[in-house]
């Protein structure tokens, strides 16, 4: 399989401005070995493909892998140029039948315009591969993967013909790729607490640096390691090229020592790393970024030096484990800039989130619009969390609350923006607070942190859904449904319902509520799919401690639904653009009213004489 990928890549024109390549390997769960924007030359891609090691694991979840590719790989932040009209090609090599459903994620990829080619062996399910691919002819089969060279030319020819066919002459949107420059300092916990985790931390830094545009007049990078005291391995002006920087990161050795003085390290970074003599360009208006990785609670005060850094304009992104979560929240610039993992081996799971947050913050700091040349208002939404508080979820409840906090941290909570409510249920349901109870994100988060497990049995999910419809998604409780604000329900259920869910779920859908259920291995997946508006919106984890793994997927789907449910007429910025809406009549001959707007509020009506043939 690896040799086959090498041969296909050799046929491509790999270059930053030409073809881009990514490789994902999967079994129970998928993992990106590298993304579309990780390597810009063919030699780099080939070297990394040759160095791939077999992942192992079971069962084979092809559906989850396809969903991962959609959410994490074929995205702009990972190097996809779909919005520029560049053809998106997925080549799947599968040696067995999938244990999960492939239909919904394959359909979602095709809806994005992704061309899917599948190659299987005699152990694969040929009908499954045909369902995944765009058309049956794109599903290829060999007796075993040693015969892959026999289909190589057919695949390459087919891909080339598709690229010619689907490449549009005019891109659908125009994106400004002029990324602002930035100064990035990594502050790494090198104490005795992270001895076994340091390789994972170092690998994380490498992956992020690979995504940066490191050069003298663009991005600059510094790395500081600390335990009792802090030490700079190199400063912002030490290296001017990406390869030099990566070599220095690869050469890092664990510092060791205790106690962990994060506060002193933050002060050191402010005084020494973010200084003009060390290469900081703060006085030139270049955004200053600090990315902290901490694996334990600090022995000294972190709030004063963190505040000092923020006051000087430094944007702090903090990543910690469960042992350092309190420090992380106090240090980071905002809750959206704080990430938590159970241990640092899970850092790849938050890599894209961190990178996206950094890019967004930099764009905001430099007042450059990250969108295309269309200005859209941020949609408002009413979000209700319905949490399983029955006896069966007692031990899992802290993980559930942590997940709710993470999702709320990503929302734009405000009286006229996003609103949040939380309901907990077992035999019966109770609202902890309503959509109009709190208008500040801090108040919502504080109340979520203070929630106590309800307890009780049996689990009546149907009754809970009915309760939410009658008591929460109502105008007196703060619902803005009648104003056209999207209504969202996020259900976390840890077991099968003892009552019927069909009627109350249908009633909510009739109101226009979008339902996103999340279950664990004790839940009934078919029940959750029936509750949701779309089976693809029903997510599942093995344990609720794995909820962070589906957080980004949930947020992506919620954002997509909000955009669909809240249409906003695009307004052109910086252009003399006109939007013409033609109102066709149903008579064979009639006048046609044309509404012309310059994108603001100046509206002109023209009446055109137009002959319409009904048969055309």
TrEMBL record:
Q: Where the protein is mainly located, per its record?
A: secreted
Give the domain of life.
Eukaryota
- PROSITE patterns recorded: VWFA (PS50234)
Q: Which GO terms describe its biological process?
A: cell adhesion
Known InterPro entries for this protein?
Answer: Collagen-VI/PIF, VWF_A, vWFA_dom_sf
Q: Which GO terms describe its cellular component?
A: collagen trimer
Q: According to its UniProt record, where is this protein located? A: Secreted, Extracellular space, Extracellular matrix
Q: Which Pfam families match?
A: VWA (PF00092)
Q: Which UniProt keywords apply?
A: Cell adhesion, Collagen, Extracellular matrix, Repeat, Secreted, Signal
What's the name of the protein? VWFA domain-containing protein
What lineage does UniProt assign to this protein's organism? Eukaryota, Metazoa, Chordata, Craniata, Vertebrata
């Amino acid at each position: 399989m690896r040799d086959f990928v090498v041969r296909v890549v050799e046929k491509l024109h790999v270059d930053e401005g030409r073809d881009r390549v990514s490789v994902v390997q999967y079994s129970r769960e998928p993992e990106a070995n590298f993304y579309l924007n990780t390597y810009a030359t063919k030699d780099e891609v080939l070297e990394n493909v040759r160095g791939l090691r077999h992942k192992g694991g079971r069962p084979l979840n092809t559906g989850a892998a396809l969903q991962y590719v959609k959410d994490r790989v074929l995205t702009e932040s990972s190097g996809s140029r779909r919005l520029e009209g560049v053809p998106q090609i997925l080549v799947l090599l599968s040696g067995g039948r999938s244990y999960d459903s492939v239909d919904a994620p394959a359909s979602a990829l095709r809806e994005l315009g992704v061309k899917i080619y599948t190659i299987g062996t005699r152990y694969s399910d040929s009908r499954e591969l045909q369902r995944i691919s765009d058309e049956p002819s794109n599903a290829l089969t060999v007796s075993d993967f040693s015969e892959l060279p026999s289909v190589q030319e057919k695949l390459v020819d087919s891909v080339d013909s598709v690229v010619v066919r689907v490449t549009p002459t005019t891109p659908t949107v125009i994106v400004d790729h002029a990324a602002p420059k930035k100064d990035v300092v990594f502050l790494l916990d090198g104490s005795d607490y992270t001895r076994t985790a340091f390789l994972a931390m170092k690998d994380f830094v490498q992956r992020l640096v690979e995504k940066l545009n490191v050069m003298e007049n663009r991005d600059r990078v510094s790395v500081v390691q600390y335990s009792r005291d802090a030490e700079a391995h190199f400063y912002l002006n030490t290296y001017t090229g990406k390869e030099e920087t990566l070599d220095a990161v690869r050469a890092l050795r664990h510092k060791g020592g205790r106690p962990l003085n994060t506060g002193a390290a933050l002060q050191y970074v402010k005084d020494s790393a973010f200084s003009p003599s060390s290469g900081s360009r703060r006085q030139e208006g270049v955004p200053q970024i600090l990315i902290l990785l901490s694996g334990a609670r600090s022995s000294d005060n972190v709030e004063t030096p963190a505040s000092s850094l923020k006051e000087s304009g430094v944007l702090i992104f903090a990543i910690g484990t469960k042992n350092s979560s309190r420090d992380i929240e106090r240090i980071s610039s905002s809750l959206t800039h704080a990430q938590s993992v159970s241990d640092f081996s899970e850092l790849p799971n938050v890599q894209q989130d961190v990178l996206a947050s950094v890019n967004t913050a930099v764009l905001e700091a430099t007042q450059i619009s990250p969108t295309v040349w269309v200005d859209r208002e941020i949609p408002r939404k009413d979000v209700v969390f319905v949490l399983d508080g029955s006896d069966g979820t007692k031990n899992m409840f802290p993980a559930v609350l942590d997940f709710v906090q993470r999702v709320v941290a990503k929302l734009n909570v405000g009286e006229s923006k996003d609103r949040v409510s939380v309901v907990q249920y077992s035999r019966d349901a109770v609202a902890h607070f309503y959509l109009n109870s709190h208008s500040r994100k801090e108040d919502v988060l504080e109340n979520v942190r203070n929630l106590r497990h309800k307890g009780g049995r049996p689990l009546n999910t149907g009754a809970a859904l009915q309760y939410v419809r009658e008591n929460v998604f109502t105008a007196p409780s703060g619902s803005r449904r009648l104003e056209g604000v999207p209504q969202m329900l996020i259900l976390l259920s840890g077991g099968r319902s003892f009552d019927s869910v069909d009627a109350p779920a249908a009633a909510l859908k009739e109101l226009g509520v979008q339902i996103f259920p999340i279950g664990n291995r004790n839940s009934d997946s078919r029940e959750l799919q029936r509750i949701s508006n779309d089976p693809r919106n029903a997510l599942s984890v093995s344990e609720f401690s794995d909820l962070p793994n589906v957080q980004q997927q949930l947020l992506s789907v919620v954002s997509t639904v909000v955009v669909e449910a809240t249409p906003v007429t695009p307004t052109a910025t910086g252009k003399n653009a006109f939007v013409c809406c033609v109102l066709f009549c149903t008579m064979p001959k009639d006048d046609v009213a044309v509404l012309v707007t310059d994108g603001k509020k100046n509206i002109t009506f023209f009446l055109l004489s137009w002959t319409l043939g009904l048969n055309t």
